[in-house]
Amino acid sequence: QEPFVADEYIERLAWRTPGGGSRGGEAFDPKRLLEEFVNHIQELQVMDERIQRKVEKLEQQCQKEAKEFAKKVQELQKSNQVAFQHFQELDEHISYVATKVCHLGDQLEGVNTPRQRAVEAQKLMKYFNEFLDGELKSDVFTNSEKIKEAADIIQKLHLIAQELPFDRFSEVKSKIASKYHDLECQLIQEFTSAQRRGEISRMREVAAVLLHFKGYSHCVDVYIKQCQEGAFLRNDVFEDAAILCQRVNKQVGEIFSNPETVLAKLIQNIFEVKLQSYVKDQLEEHRRSDAEQYLKNLYDLYTRTTNLSSKLMEFNLGTDKQTFLSKLIKAIFISYLENYIEVEIGYLKSRSAMILQRYYDSKNHQKRSIGTGGIQDLKERLRQRTNLPLGPSIDTHGETFLSQDVVVNLLQETKQAFERCHRLSDPSDLPKNAFRIFSMLVEFLCTEHIDYALETGLAGIPSSDSKNANLYFLDVVHQANTIFHLFDKQFNDHLMPLISSSPKLSECLQKKKDIIEQMEVKLDMGIDRTLNCMIGQMKHILAAEQKKTDFKPEDENNVLIQYTNACVKVCGYVRKQVEKIRNSMDGKNVDTVLMELGVRFHRLIYEHLQQYSYSCMGGMLAICDVAEYRKCAKDFKIALVLQLFDTLHALCNLLVVAPDNLKQVCSGEQLANLDKNILHSFVQLRVDYRSARLARHFS
User: Fold this and answer.
1) Domain count, the chain
2) Which tens digits make up the pLDDT trace of 471-490?
3) 207: domain range?
4) What percent of the residues of the chain are helix, what percent strand, and what percent coil, each to the nearest 5?
C-alpha cells in the first residue's frame, strides 16, 4: 500500500519475528530471523506471480474489448455517413419543391393581382354607376355601421373623379364630392363623440380612416380644441399648459399614427393662442404707464415661458424641437424684446435719479453744480498741482453726503437690470447691453453720488490755518471705501459673466480703472489737505499752550511738572487722529497715511523746538516732552516715525549734557550719522551756548 517504504517494512517484519527485535541482546536469534526473511521472500514471490497472472489476464480482456469497441465505432461511422447522404438528398428535394412552390406562388400572384384589381375596379364601377344614376342602393352607403368601408370607397372614387373631364361628368363629380364631404363630417363627428366618451380605440380607428382624407388636419384640430376644454381653469397658465401637454403626450401615441406632429401642433396652438394673449394682457397694461412693473412682468413671463419650453423638450416633437420651440417663444416676445434695452435704460436712469434726489431731499440739501468746461478744468489742474483750495470752504456740518442705503438701492436696481439683461437680450447684443447698464451705474453711483460727495468733502476741508476746524473728510474716505468695495463686488459677480468673452470686457475694465484713478486723485488730495489741517491744529495748540518760560523757568529748583501742557494736548489730539485714520481706512492705506502724518508731526515738533532756548531744567523738560511725543509715535506702529522721534530724543540730550561730554554724545550711535549743522543748531539753543567753555568744547 502507498506510501511504501522498504526500510520501514523490513523493520516492522523484524520486530514481529521472535528473537529479532534486540540487537546484541540475549534474546536475539539471527537464524530464526534469517529463516523468517527467507519464508517471507518466498511468500512475496508467490504473491508476485499470482498478481502478474491477474494483470496479464486483464490486459488480454482489455485488448479484446478495445477491438470490439473499434469495430462498433466503424459501424456507427458507416451508418452516420449513410444518414448524412440521405439528409443531403432530402435537402435537395426540399429546395426543389420550395422553388417550385415559389414559382407557382409568383404565377398565382401574377394572375390574382390583376384579378383583384379587376374585381376592385368592377366594384368601384358599380358604385360609380350608382352615383351616375343618382340613387345609392348599396348597403355600404346606407348602413351607418359600415362607414369605414364607405369611407374607403368614396375616397377612391373621389380620386378617380378628379381625373374625369368636368364637362361630361360635372354632376357625378359634384355628387361624389358631396358624399366625400358628408362622410368626412360624419367621421369627424364620430371622432369628436368618441373623444368625449374617452373611447381611445374608436378614436384610433376613425383617425386611421381619416388619415387619407383632406379633413385629417381638421380632425387633429378638433382633438386639440377638445383637449384644451377645461384645461386652463387655474391662474397659472404655464403650469396648466405643462400638465396638459404631459397628459396628451401619454395619449396621442395610442390614437394617431404621427403623434409627434399632433403634439407639436397642440404646443403651437397653446403658444400662439393661450400664451400670446396672456402675455399681451399682462404687458400691455403697464407698457406705457409703469416701466418698473412692465420690466418685472416681462422678465417673469419670459422666464416662465422658457422654463415651460425646457419641460416640453422632454417630449418627441420631431427632429429639431429646439428650433421649433425657440421660434414659438420669439413669436410671442419679439415685439417686446426689440426695444427692451431702451426701456431698461430709461427706467434705470429715472429710478436712479429719483433715489438720489429722494436722499438729498431728506437731507434738505440742494445739489450744487460741480461744473465742467474750461474754467473748471483749469481750477482742477491747479488744485491737483498745488493742492490749494480754490474757492470758499463749505461747511457740511459733518455730513458726508454718502449713504449706504442709497448705494444698496442703486446696486439692487442694477443687479436686477443685469439679470433681466442676461435673460432678455439676444446673445449677440448681451455684452453691449450690459455695458450700457454698467455705464448707468457708473454715472449715478460713481459720478453723481461718490464723486459729488468727494467734491463736496474737498470743498468742506478748512484751510490749514483754521482754528478748531472739524475734519470730516476721513468719514467720506471711510464710506467711499466701503461703497467702492460693494461696487467692485457687483462688477465681478454680475457684470463679468455677461462680458467675459467679448471685446466689451476691456472697455469695461478701462472705464472702471479710469473712475478708480479719478476718485483716488481726489481722495489723495483730500487726505493730504486733511493732514495739513491736522498739523495746523497742532500748530495752534502749540502756539496757544507753549510758553517761553516752559523751557527757561525762573526757578530752576522748583519745577513740578513732568511735561508741558502743550505736549499733553498735542499728544491727545494726535492719538484721536491716529484712531480716526485707522477706522477710516484699510490695508496698506492705513500705514501710508500714518507714515505721512508721522513724518509731518515730527517735522512740526522739530521746528517747534528750534524756536526756544533752554536752560538745564528746561532742557530736561523738553526731553520729557519729546519722550511723550515718542510714546505717542509708537501708536503709529510705523518704524520710520519711531526712528525719527528716537533721533529727536537723542538730539534733545544735547540740551542738557555737560559741555565736557558733548563730543562723546554727538559721536554716539543715534547722532553719528546726522549733519553737523543739525547738531550745532541744537547746541545753539542752550542758554549757556555763549560761554567760552561750551563753544570751545563743541568747536
Assistant:
1) 3
2) 788 889 999 999 999 999 99
3) 140-294
4) 75, 0, 25
